[in-house]
Automatic annotation (TrEMBL):
Compartments where located: Cell inner membrane
Taxonomic lineage from the root: Bacteria, Pseudomonadati, Pseudomonadota, Alphaproteobacteria, Acetobacterales
Annotated TM spans: 17-37, 159-181
A Gene Ontology molecular function term of the record: phosphorelay sensor kinase activity
Catalysed reactions listed for this entry: ATP + protein L-histidine = ADP + protein N-phospho-L-histidine
Protein name, as recorded: histidine kinase
Cited CDD domains: HAMP (cd06225), HATPase (cd00075), HisKA (cd00082)
tRNA-binding keyword on record: no
Pfam families: HAMP (PF00672), HATPase_c (PF02518), HisKA (PF00512)
One term under GO cellular component: plasma membrane
Organism superkingdom: Bacteria
Length: 442
């Protein structure tokens, strides 16, 4: 039952807020309509029909009592002038039907009920024969008496006028409430959009508080949170830059010292040259590891997001990968494809993925296409792949596969993609290797 109600109810805050306004409004108008139509109108209608019925009974009694035709004509003229009843006597005729042609309102049933209690003759009431009059046919023993009475004596007014007024006023109030609610919901939507953009790493600046007091407080709190996070990231980036400088300084001195050591003129010059080359290689590897650790901790958060054309961007990435001895077999990009990204950060992401494929001796196929709500980038290789039960494990920091490395390549790539508001998934490639699926939202 609850799920069925949820499917019927609107999902947006604006829709639900308008329902909160609409239901009490409809109930209030329904109560007003019932109080008027069900009580007051019925009471007045019974009084009006009772008055007309009494005059009709008086006319019947007078016509039955008066035997002289001149007296009857005099009474018919008096009824027309004083009672507003137009009476026509049709001797010898018979009624073809009895009852009433019903209309909207209580006066038709009230008039039928009053006449049945007041007279014992069959009758028929035509409400639709004339626009401004109601014709009543009464079957007497020797003929039919036609009585025309003004409709205004029985009808207080068209009921549809009251219904139209109730519906029109409700609609007007609902539109006014909708305009006010839309302004309130607009502020909430702006706050939600700002939070989403900030979660994607896009610098939107502080938002202007608007709307109700609670929404303004939420906007102010969001601005303060955004400012604190930005200052924290900037402070951490500055500290990491200093750490990077401090770590590279001794490594640079070691590299310089090793480069200045003599390599010839000694008995063991050949062995020393090999040892020096190995130490220089170890220092280079240490520098690469430091760069990876610092990139992982820094999160590439200082670069601004911009709209990038995917074709030239991926061509540059593939060209750099081929210079680094990565075998890229093919590049397939959907024409006219654009994406919002940090170019340097995404370049580092793809470089890490290419480097993983190179270490495992695999070739790569890079594909980019547009999908619903964003851009999808596929990196397929024909290497050994990763078993499904180890895919969550290799995405953890410092989890290295059999190909060596620091264990941060996939982790850094995933964090960069998530910083864009997207997601990275590891799947099986069509050729049996690993497929890395990157999704970037618009």
């Amino acid at each position: 039952m609850e799920k069925a109600i949820r499917r019927v109810l609107p999902r947006s805050l604006l829709g639900r807020s308008l329902l909160i306004v609409l239901f009490p409004l409809l109930i209030t108008q329904g109560i007003a309509l019932e109080l008027y139509y069900g009580n007051f109108l019925k009471v007045v209608s019974r009084r009006l029909t009772g008055s007309v019925t009494a005059e009709i009974v008086l006319s019947l009694n007078a016509l039955e009592r008066l035997k002289n035709p001149a007296d009857k004509e005099w009474f018919v003229a008096q009824a027309r002038e004083q009672l507003q009843l137009i009476e026509i006597w049709r001797p010898g005729e018979k009624l073809s039907r009895v009852g009433s042609t019903h209309v909207l309102g209580p006066m038709d049933d009230d008039l039928v009920h009053a006449l049945r209690e007041a007279i014992s003759y069959p009758f028929f009431i035509s409400w639709r024969h004339f626009h401004r009059t109601v014709r009543i046919y009464i079957q007497l023993p020797d003929g039919v008496l036609e009585i025309d009475t003004p409709r205004k004596r029985l009808d207080m007014g068209q009921i549809w006028l009251f219904v139209a007024w109730a519906v029109g006023s409700s609609l007007l109030l609902f539109i006014i409430a909708g305009l006010f609610m839309r302004n309130q919901v607009r502020a909430i939507r702006q706050l939600a959009l700002a939070a989403e953009q900030f979660g994607m790493g896009r610098d939107i600046g502080p938002i202007r508080p608007a709307g109700a007091q609670e929404v303004r407080k939420a906007a102010v709190a969001f601005n303060r949170m955004q400012d604190r996070i930005s200052r924290f990231v900037a402070q951490r980036t500055g500290v990491l830059a200093g750490v990077s400088h401090d770590l590279r300084t001794p490594l640079t001195r070691l590299r310089l010292s090793l480069a200045m050591m003599p390599r010839e003129g000694t008995i063991c010059a050949k062995d020393m040259t090999e040892d020096l080359d190995e130490m220089i290689g170890d220092i280079a590897e240490m520098e690469q590891m430091i760069d990876s650790y610092l990139s992982f901790a820094r999160g590439e958060g200082s670069e601004s997001v911009q709209q990038v054309a995917m074709q030239p961007f991926l061509e540059d990435v593939v060209a750099a990968a081929r210079r680094a001895n990565v075998h890229v077999r093919a590049l397939v990009v959907e024409p006219g494809l654009h994406a919002h990204m940090r170019p340097d950060a995404m370049r580092r992401t793809l470089s890490n993925l290419f480097d993983n494929a190179r270490r495992h001796g695999a070739s790569v196929v890079l594909t980019a296409r547009g999908v619903a709500g964003g851009v999808c980038i596929l990196v397929d290789d024909d290497g050994p792949g990763i078993p499904p039960d180890r895919r969550a494990q290799v995405l953890r920091a410092f989890e290295s596969g059999h190909g060596g490395g620091t264990g941060l390549g996939l982790t850094i790539a995933r964090d960069i993609v998530r910083a864009h508001g997207g997601e990275m998934e590891l799947q099986n490639a069509p050729e049996g290797g690993l497929r890395v699926r990157l999704y970037l939202p618009h």
